[in-house]
């Protein structure tokens, strides 16, 4: 009962600040950075919801805050001012790295001061500060000198600040002083944790502090490089490349593999070019691994070099002005590598199943196995099957369907009916050996001879279905008896990833309540719509009904400020459940459990009175 009371208090205290916020973006940034964020963390700790590890990177958050800062309420600006300015360290000292490329800024007193492991350093410099300098020089030599990336544009040495980031629960981030007025390149600086010694940084001791320093330096310094190429980089690909770079510079650490479960098992619902979404962007680094294996690591660098030649097309002061990376990748792959993003995305999806990675061989076991959408053992497979043999896929996603041997078939046949954006592949596994089966001349049917339960070598047949376009809701269905269902070409194109990774329009009521289609909360709701509603018939029916009924309601909300605040309060449970599905489920279960306890006590009292 005590835990139920705590949870109820947590929910109420989290709702009150949201209700009080009248400006469209204020509540978002306050919940991420301000006193509200500290309150949420403290209350989470009270009820035992803190699970770590630290947040990999906050570069995207601070870039958007800098863009949106003038739109915030004066009180919010005052609260968050320290997050858009360079840090002020207590009794600051500066150590120049041995190679002369970095100024390492550190505090000599206060909470930001690094802990001395050598209490009497001969040169007066804490040994950890010297180690930070060594690591950043190594990263510079690898990423700039060896790999050929353009060094960050700075006047003099690059600034790195050591800070106590435990309260932010972040490893580090790359920031800049001002939004560029005309040029696309912008100087930057980096802030990282002062020691990486807390358990949320070492993932409860799984990694050493030095290892986390290494990969954080490799990650954030590449963000500095990215800002030098083009400030308007698409944030999802910025995180993909920085996370991939961790493993390229420090191959033995391998912490980046822990992010793969955030993406690969969900690759049928999380688009490759989706924006920042539940840390999946850190797992999507594996696509760069594929590009590097297929075309060489220079293909990734070529994409950033191409980006440096481009200008934002519109709204450069918002994430909507970011240059979408899908078309950039497609242009580079087509021009320099006789390929395309569509072809390479299909090849990547194939490799997720075949697992024939040809670099970082000792680490392949850390890549999750492909996720199976459905397994079929009863034939024929058709519309009457328990698991419906049909799928609607968001842009740049894929799904696998598994067929196991049966004595009722000797030759396995499967026919696919699909829209124009769907590509497929079929694999046969015999005695553990995988081979790809060629399609018929029309590309819509496959045959596998000798696939039978009587053949001891037959393991499985797996069908890959991929949406290899930047358009959501391409459809496919399949059968083993030649039957088929109608499919409909999608009518609404996606926005190609952008800052929020959204597609289409809609979310009228949320847009009216938060004041902007680009508000991060609205983007999260759009992503939930794309991932969970538009991928199934009941969800699409709900969305269709919502689109018919909500516009006039949204118009009324948009005209009245007091209604906007009320609707935002009503949307809080929805937004929280989208942002924290596990926490929302736990809260619901606790509330239901608490309600059950109350009901049982009332019944007991009634029995006693009788």
UniProtKB/TrEMBL annotation:
InterPro entries for the chain: CFI_box_CTERM_dom
Top-level taxon of the source organism: Bacteria
Signal sequence, renumbered to the chain: 1-22
Positions of transmembrane segments: 582-600
Keywords, ordered alphabetically: Membrane, Signal, Transmembrane, Transmembrane helix
NCBIfam families registered for this protein in UniProt: CFI_box_CTERM, MXAN_6640_HExxH
Protein name: Uncharacterized protein
Organism: Citrifermentans bemidjiense (strain ATCC BAA-1014 / DSM 16622 / JCM 12645 / Bem) (Geobacter bemidjiensis)
């Amino acid at each position: 009962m005590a835990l139920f009371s705590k949870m109820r208090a947590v929910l109420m205290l989290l709702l009150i600040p949201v209700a009080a916020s009248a400006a469209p973006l204020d509540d978002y940034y306050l919940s991420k950075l301000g006193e509200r964020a500290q309150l949420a963390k403290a209350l989470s700790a009270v009820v035992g919801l803190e699970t770590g590890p630290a947040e990999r990177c906050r570069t995207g958050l601070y870039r958007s805050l800098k863009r949106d800062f003038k739109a915030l309420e004066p009180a919010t600006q005052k609260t968050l001012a320290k997050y858009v300015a360079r840090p002020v360290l207590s009794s600051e000292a500066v150590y120049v790295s041995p190679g002369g490329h970095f100024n390492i800024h550190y505090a000599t007193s206060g909470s930001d001061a690094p802990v001395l492991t050598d209490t009497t350093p001969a040169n007066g410099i804490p040994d950890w500060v010297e180690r930070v300098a060594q690591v950043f020089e190594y990263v510079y030599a690898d990423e700039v000198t060896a790999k050929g990336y353009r060094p960050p544009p700075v006047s003099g040495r690059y600034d790195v600040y050591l800070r106590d980031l435990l309260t932010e629960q972040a490893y580090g981030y790359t920031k800049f002083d001002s939004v560029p007025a005309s040029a696309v390149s912008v100087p930057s600086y980096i802030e990282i944790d002062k020691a990486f010694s807390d358990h949320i940084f070492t993932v409860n001791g799984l990694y050493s502090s030095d290892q986390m320093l290494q990969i954080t330096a490799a990650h954030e310094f590449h963000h500095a490089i990215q800002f030098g190429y083009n400030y308007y980089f698409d944030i999802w690909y910025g995180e993909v490349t920085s996370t991939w770079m961790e493993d390229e510079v420090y191959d033995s650490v391998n912490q980046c593999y822990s992010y793969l479960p955030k993406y690969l098992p969900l690759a049928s619902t999380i688009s490759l070019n989706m924006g920042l979404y539940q840390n999946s962007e850190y797992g999507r680094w594996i696509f760069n691994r594929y590009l590097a294996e297929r075309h060489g690591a220079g293909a990734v660098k070529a994409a950033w070099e191409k980006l440096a030649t481009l200008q934002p097309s519109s709204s450069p002061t918002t994430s909507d002005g970011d240059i979408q990376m899908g078309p950039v990748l497609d242009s580079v792959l087509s021009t320099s590598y006789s390929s395309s993003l569509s072809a390479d995305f299909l090849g990547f999806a194939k490799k997720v199943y075949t697992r024939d990675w040809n670099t970082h061989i000792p680490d392949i076991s850390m890549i999750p196995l492909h996720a199976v959408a459905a397994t079929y053992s009863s034939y024929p497979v058709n519309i009457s099957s328990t698991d419906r043999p049909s799928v609607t896929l968001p842009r740049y996603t894929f799904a696998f369907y598994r067929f196991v041997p049966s004595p009722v078939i000797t030759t396995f046949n499967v026919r696919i009916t699909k829209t124009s954006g769907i590509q497929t592949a079929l694999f046969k596994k015999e005695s553990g050996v995988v081979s790809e089966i060629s399609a018929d001349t029309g590309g819509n049917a496959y045959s596998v001879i000798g696939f039978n339960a009587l053949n001891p070598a037959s393991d499985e047949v797996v069908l890959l279905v991929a949406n290899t376009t930047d358009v959501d809701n391409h459809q496919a269905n399949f059968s083993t008896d030649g039957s088929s269902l109608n499919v409909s070409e999608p009518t609404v194109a996606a926005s190609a990833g952008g800052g929020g990774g959204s597609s289409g329009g809609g979310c009228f009521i949320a847009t009216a309540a938060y004041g902007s289609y680009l508000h991060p909360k609205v983007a999260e709701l759009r992503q939930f719509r794309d991932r969970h509603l538009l991928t199934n018939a009941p969800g699409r029916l709900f969305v269709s009904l919502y689109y018919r009924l909500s516009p006039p309601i949204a118009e009324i909300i948009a005209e009245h400020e007091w209604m906007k605040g009320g609707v935002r309060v009503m949307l809080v449970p929805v937004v929280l459940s989208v942002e924290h599905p596990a926490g929302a489920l736990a809260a619901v279960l606790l509330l239901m459990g608490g309600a059950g306890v109350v009901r049982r006590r009332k019944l007991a009292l009634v029995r006693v009175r009788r």
